[in-house]
Amino acid sequence: MALQVPVPARNFGAKSIEFLPRGNRELNLSFAPDPTTGESVAMVRGGFRLVVHDVEVSQGAAGNVGYGTVTLEADNAVVWIRNHGTPGNLGGLVSTTDRPIEMYLDGNIVFYQGQRVIYADRMYYNVSSEYGMVLAAEVITPVPQYQGLLRLKADVLQQRDRQNFMAYGAAFTSSR
Predict the structure, then answer these.
(1) Considering the entire predicted model, what is its pTM?
(2) To 10 degrees, the CA torsion angle through 1, 47, 142, 168?
(3) Could you point out which of 54, 69, 120, 131 has its C-alpha 20 to 30 Å from the C-alpha of 14?
């Protein structure tokens, strides 16, 4: 069963997902589709890089705002895919609100989102809603109305959406 985390309703565009090996190793992937639920669970071990393309948010009459590419690197992951129609592989995946892709990441996590970089030990991330929970987080990020980057360390960092975060047990500085 997929880990379900409530998030605010938003209209997100489709995102294509690409799993790549991290470094010179081959991608170590085990895959278990469940035909009764239409859900698939994959385990990725030994290092991987996940690239999320075509990230955009629908702004209604204002059109779509594109955000480019999000990249995640980690040692290990468990990936839940609802309504997955291609048993046996993670190639050609598309995450939508009807087919969300959720993952639990573990070990040497580096999360790139524009100029923002998050380093962590463990993380949950919902690709379709861009919602996440990060443990032992360190963030280097731009901040509106400040020229430069801030460093934030937090025991728990909750990404509520692309621009809104909640940090617990946190400290920040403008010093690198």
Answers:
(1) 0.77
(2) 50
(3) 120
Alpha carbon of residue 57 to chain centroid: 15
For residue 131, the one-letter residue type is Y
Which three-class secondary structure state does DSSP give residue 61?
Answer: helix
Residue type, 75: D
Burial of 151 (0-12, 13-18, 19+ CB in 10 A): middle
Distances (CA, A) of 34 to 91, 104, 172: 18, 19, 44
Residue 37, number of CB atoms within 10 A of its CB? 12
Closest CA to 171 of 129, 125, 138: 138
- The answer to whether the beta carbons of residues 152 and 124 sit under 8 Å apart is no
Cα–Cα–Cα angle for 114, 54, 7, rounded to 5 degrees: 75
C-alpha distance across the termini of the chain, in Å = 41
Instruction: Give residue-wise pLDDT tens across range 108-148.
Output: 999 998 888 999 999 999 887 788 999 999 999 888 888 88
Q: Give tens-digit pLDDT for 146-157.
A: 888 999 999 999
Q: Around Cβ 163, how many Cβ atoms within 10 Å?
A: 9
